[in-house]
Amino acid sequence: QVQFVESGGGFVQPGGSLRFSCKTSGFAFSRYSIYWYRQAPGKERELFGSISPAGDSVYYIDSLKGRFTASRDNGENTVHLQMNNLKPEDTGVYYCKVPGLGSWGQGTQVTVSS
């Protein structure tokens, strides 16, 4: 059974940091790019980044470049996202997923507020 289990969210003030993790199971993790999504209050879920199977190619939307850093551990079937200099507009529920595999996890809430 394919599963995505997100963790690492929390409440931080603007400029703070969080480390988002996604533990997966049920598929050949090292063969797939992993994609990150977030859903802000009142908005649709959006794709904001991805990491290649070997971890050597990462994509972020422009607003996150220089603030978010991705990594993956293929031995632990886990991806991590270090989120620095967080802004109020980063608030939302964060998810990881492989399109077409399994169902959405429960996500993890990130709240950035003063």
List low-confidence stretches.
none
* Strands side by side in the biggest sheet: 2-10-9-4-5-6
* Morphology call: globular
Beta-strand content bin: over 45%
Q: Count of DSSP helices?
A: 0
Mind summarizing the main beta sheet?
Answer: 6 strands, mixed
Structural account:
The chain has 114 residues and is mainly β. Helix content is 0%, strand content 47%. The protein has no helices and 10 strands. It has strands at residues 3-7, 10-12, 18-25, 34-39, 46-51, 58-60, 68-73, 78-83, 92-97, 108-112. The strands form 2 sheets. A 6-stranded mixed β-sheet has the order 2-10-9-4-5-6, with no helix packed on it. The chain has a 4-stranded antiparallel β-sheet with strand order 1-3-8-7, with no helix packed on it. The radius of gyration is 13 Å and the shape is globular. The model has no long low-confidence stretch (mean pLDDT 96).
List strands and helices in order, with pairings.
Blueprint: E1 3-7, E2 10-12, E3 18-25, E4 34-39, E5 46-51, E6 58-60, E7 68-73, E8 78-83, E9 92-97, E10 108-112
Parallel strand pairs: 2-10
Antiparallel strand pairs: 1-3, 3-8, 4-5, 4-9, 5-6, 7-8, 9-10
